[in-house]
Amino acid sequence: MDETLLMIPGPTRVAPRVLKAMSENIVNHRSAVFGEILTETTEMMSEVFQTDNQSYILTGSGTAAMEAALGNIIEKDDKVLTIVGGKFGERFMQITETHRGQPVKLEVEWGHAVDPKDVEYILEEDDDIKAVTIVHNETSTGVTNPIDKVGKIVKDYDALYVVDTVSSLGGDDVFVDGYNIDICVTGSQKCLAAPPGMSAITLNDDAWKVVDNTETYNYYLDMKRYRKSGSAKPPETPYTPSVSLMYAMREALIAVMEEGLESRIERHQLAALATRNGIKAMGLELFAQLEVSSNTVTAIKIPEGVTDKELRGTMRNKYQIELAGGQDHLKGNVFRIGHMGNITHREIISTISALEMTLKEFNLDVCLGTGVAAVEEAYLIG
Amino acid sequence: MDETLLMIPGPTRVAPRVLKAMSENIVNHRSAVFGEILTETTEMMSEVFQTDNQSYILTGSGTAAMEAALGNIIEKDDKVLTIVGGKFGERFMQITETHRGQPVKLEVEWGHAVDPKDVEYILEEDDDIKAVTIVHNETSTGVTNPIDKVGKIVKDYDALYVVDTVSSLGGDDVFVDGYNIDICVTGSQKCLAAPPGMSAITLNDDAWKVVDNTETYNYYLDMKRYRKSGSAKPPETPYTPSVSLMYAMREALIAVMEEGLESRIERHQLAALATRNGIKAMGLELFAQLEVSSNTVTAIKIPEGVTDKELRGTMRNKYQIELAGGQDHLKGNVFRIGHMGNITHREIISTISALEMTLKEFNLDVCLGTGVAAVEEAYLIG
Questions:
Q1: Cβ of B29 and A13 within 8 Å?
Q2: Which of A21, A166, B108, B370 is 20 to 30 A from residue A7's alpha carbon, by CA?
Q3: Residue of B nearest to A215 (CA)
Q4: B187-208: string of b/e by CB count within 10 Å (b at 16+)?
Q5: Residue-level pLDDT at B1
Q6: Are residues B248 and B309 in the same domain?
Q7: Å from A99 to nearest chain B CA?
């Protein structure tokens, strides 16, 4: 059994009760008993999305849900305003291109959040924008975009607002209805702390209207088929779902409900604050701008005197803590600590402590205990 | 814990050792340890496919793999010879249409297998056929198509041979290389007896050549991305895979290897023969033509005097055995017994026995013990 502590931005540590749920016998996916499980799970999903819409659970990663979002509303040459400030913003752009849409790229410097005024400017200038895509929490940079403010702008234009909350839902405020989000997607293995392999999507009536008028190239991810099967009695999925992962998803969502969404988000906020304070106290530099830094993942510049491989290798091999590296041009320049899902002060303390020891080992100028003290202080103040 | 015995054509009963594998801790999907698991699993997959090609495991159902097969080789107006003799043949046709290909439909009466000569005739008449799709084991009718003979024909033409072995691989002979199959797909939850939610695909060099020259609309199912990530060191999947299901898939494939592929197929053959003999001895009528009947699923005409709901409801509620109904126009007219995966004489006996009691309960003319005796006889002869 691998006991390495996952401090990466997904998959996150899954609670034993959720792992255990997967060992239940498989049931017929077209039966009343599975219909009930599906209903219960999708209803909890809508509750977490804070929406009155129906939610759908897909067997596939967050990327599958991102493609389900765009592939069902985009036809050739449709313009999509794509906010790109990291790898997952880029992914929305690539999906737009794959579906022969025309991305209107709003480039944001990695580490920064989008300025809602820039979105307004483009929408004002261009009447043909059919959809706006935004990544709430850019996992690659540790930046949170202001999806509430951008939502207020987009609602005044005739464009669908498509939001990726893969690495934020359950760890940060996401009000699908309250933020005027038309299509929202998320993943199982991030703040919801279920195993990877499932994702979820919710669409409001405006979005469905577009879906109904779009000739999609999606078959496996055809949302019209999901809607049809989902409204059968008992409700079903169009294709065989991962029954075991649905058990896990249900159990993970029950755990979210037991904790309470608000408390869960506060726990994430505190873990993020404690991590940042610990990192700064050690003399390391944060990659993202402080005022837009993420609740769920922190990107840190790799200090002089140690390489990415040395730093993360020591953390993994000597201290059994798995950190994430940088992606694309950040590879070798930053490392990332995921503090999402079931994370508590214990994991943050362990991580910052191991990091202190690792840096010391490479003769960096670090005063043992300083980072840990800052974490403790953050938790004491709360 | 649901103890209903699944005698449906997938998902099938999953062995405790495989369920248990899923309760292992989640590891980083971009790590050496996961890379090893992925390598081991895909290598075993190629062994089961009986191919020298690389195999890829997708997080998604068999339908995802079917779309991965066609969506990566079809462009607008490309002609696809689609052999349709059941629901899954139709699915290949629908996927062709979704990707704007032009299906050339070779319709086969449900319950019958395709005549290879008909395939030859169409290929001879039409030079433009880019691919031929065939479903090895038509789950909806319990028919096995002669993929070996059709393969011998297709290889003489400039068309890719795309074979769905979702409900046959591991329970019937599939020699991907030996049958000249260019693209082969399968699912996790059928004869391989892993939980649902994963599928696999393998492509030979001829297929890759077409993939490399096709502008796909697939993003999540873009095989070029799978190839690229798969050849990284350590090997990865392009998007976060279902780590837990990969554990299960590996364990299920190890179990297949332990049993031996040939023995496993013989076990399936015997279970199919015993089921058919039991059914016939009870005086019920098989739906599929006997000489092309499936190793893994048997479709049976619902006799006069009992409805589908009564028959399957009693089997489920009184005897805790789940059977499958008919699909599409066969709904209410046939029921299906899946005898795939980990099925032994015990489950076949239990099922035939419960069926005898059920029919008796509805006052049908059935002599208790006759079906069971026929099953026993089949197993005694072996």
A1: no
A2: A21
A3: B98
A4: bbbbbbbbbbbbbbbbbbebbb
A5: 61
A6: no
A7: 6
Q: What is the DSSP string of B161-219?
A: EEEE-TTTBTTB---TTTTT-SEEEEESSSTT-PPSSEEEEEE-HHHHHHHHT-----S
How far apart CA A59 and CA B344 sit, in angstroms, is: 30
Tokens of A63: 């990327």
Q: Among A225, A258, A291, give the residue marking a domain's end.
A: A258
Which B residues, 225 through 254, put their C-beta within 8 Å of a C-beta on chain A?
Answer: 238-245, 248
Q: Which residues of chain A have pLDDT under 70?
A: 1
| Judgement on whether residues A140 and A211 belong to the same structural domain of the protein | yes
The pTM score is: 0.96
What mean pLDDT do residues B111-127 have? 98
Of the candidates A70, A52, A66, which has an alpha carbon nearest to the alpha carbon of residue A205?
A: A52
Domain total of chain B? 2
B32 touches chain A (CB under 8 A): no
ipTM of this predicted structure = 0.95
**Would you call B338 an interface residue with chain A, using a CB distance cutoff of 8 Å?**
no
φ, ψ at A293 (rounded to 5°): -75, 150
> B213 touching A, CB under 8 A?
no
Nearest CA to A353 out of A377, A371, A329, A335 is that of A371
End position of a domain, from candidates A203, A231, A258: A258
| In a shared domain, residues A72 and A194 | yes
Write the pLDDT tens digit of every residue in B327-370: 999 999 999 999 999 999 999 999 999 999 999 999 999 999 99
Q: A156: which residues sit within 8 A by CB, 6+ positions away?
A: none
DSSP category for residue B201: E
Contact B196 A221 (CB under 8 A): no
Which residue range(s) make up the domain with A169? 16-258
User: pLDDT tens digits, residue range A66-111?
Assistant: 999 999 999 999 999 999 999 999 999 999 999 999 999 999 999 9
Tell me the chain B residues in contact with residue A15 when contact means C-beta distances shorter than 8 Å: none
Say if residue A177 is in the same domain as residue A51: yes
Dist CA B42 CA B219 (whole Å): 21
Tokens of B132: 């031929």
Write the single-letter amino acid at B211.
V
